[in-house]
Design brief:
- This protein is mainly β and 266 residues long.
- It folds into 4 domains: 55 residues, Nucleic acid-binding proteins (OB fold (Dihydrolipoamide Acetyltransferase, E2P), Beta Barrel); 56 residues, Nucleic acid-binding proteins (OB fold (Dihydrolipoamide Acetyltransferase, E2P)); 58 residues, Beta Barrel (OB fold (Dihydrolipoamide Acetyltransferase, E2P)), CATH 2.40.50; 66 residues, Arc Repressor Mutant, subunit A.
- It is built from 3 helices and 18 strands.
- The protein has a 5-stranded antiparallel beta sheet with strand order 3-2-1-4-5, with no helix packed on it. Strands 8-7-6-9-10 form a 5-stranded antiparallel beta sheet, with no helix packed on it.
- The longest helix is centred in the last third of the chain and has 13 residues.
- The chain is elongated, with a radius of gyration of 25 Å.
Length: 266
């Protein structure tokens, strides 16, 4: 985003200029009463579908250099188009677009192609840095971008490469989720082992949402697999959150018609 000065008007909109007197059109739909000759307008400039530079006042979801999660809105033979929050959809090349789905979230690096046009790149590992083994960073922002056999490959603080291992996942996570986490270990190669921050309030809300019907057919003897499949949380979190809700007098265990303990909303 940048400030550009209004130089003149046409039937198509206002022409803005930069310090080098280069012109770019701000279409009529973005013109307000405050847009007058010599006024400064805060705009985002991009190449439209005909490769013409256009200015808009809408804030895009990301800028060149950002790593972010975007939704697929169309799939074509050589890739997919993503919603960047501007009139022109963002192209993401792919050698195998058949594995993509409309509505799916993908994590990409927003960069420029050889023609200086915005483009999305998926090979994130090549863009991510290794963290210094002596780093004191502890709490981090995590963005999972690839599911593997051992867990999820993640972007850490929009810059570093990290991994959440399956045995450290205590709640359901998806590619493109923005998650709060911690650094458990920095390896000699600079890659980071990650852990998730347990949010007891979030877990309690998950349980209460599932209790809308009044009864949750789970108890402390339920298997970890059963709890995770139904609630998407670990058994340890389920027990902690349930005990907290019981103390708050929001839920209690009762016996159903078969004599099995079930969680009941008070």
């Amino acid at each position: 985003m940048q400030y550009l000065k209004v130089a003149r008007f046409s039937k198509f909109g206002a022409y803005l200029i930069d310090e080098m007197k280069n012109e770019v059109l701000l279409p009529n739909r973005y013109i307000t009463d405050e847009v007058i000759i010599n006024s400064l307008v805060w705009v985002f400039v991009y190449s439209d579908s005909e490769d013409r530079l256009v200015a808009i006042t809408t804030m895009p979801k990301g800028f060149v250099g950002d790593i972010l999660s975007l939704e697929i809105i169309d799939i074509v033979e050589n890739g997919a188009y993503l919603d960047l929050g501007i009139p022109k959809d963002l192209f993401m090349p792919s050698k195998n677009p058949s594995h993509l789905k409309i509505g799916q979230k993908v994590v990409i690096k927003l960069t420029l192609d050889k023609q200086n046009r915005l483009i999305a790149r998926q090979n994130l590992a090549s863009y991510l840095e290794k963290l210094n083994i002596h780093s004191k960073i502890k709490n981090v922002d995590i963005l999972p971008f690839l599911k593997t056999d051992i867990g999820f490959n993640c972007v850490v603080n929009n810059k570093y490469f990290g991994v959440i291992h399956n045995n450290d996942i205590n709640t359901k996570i998806n590619i493109g989720d923005n998650i709060k986490g911690i650094i458990k270990k920095i390896r000699q190669d600079g890659k980071v082992d990650l852990g998730l921050v347990s949010n007891i309030n979030l877990t309690k809300n998950i349980i209460l949402d599932k209790l809308c019907s009044g009864v949750l057919k789970l108890n402390f003897d339920s298997s970890s697999k059963e709890i995770f499949e139904y609630l998407g949380i670990s058994k340890k979190l389920f027990k902690s959150a349930s005990n907290s809700l019981i103390k708050e007098n929001k839920v209690k265990f009762i016996k159903d018609s078969n004599g099995k303990l079930v969680l009941h909303k008070i």
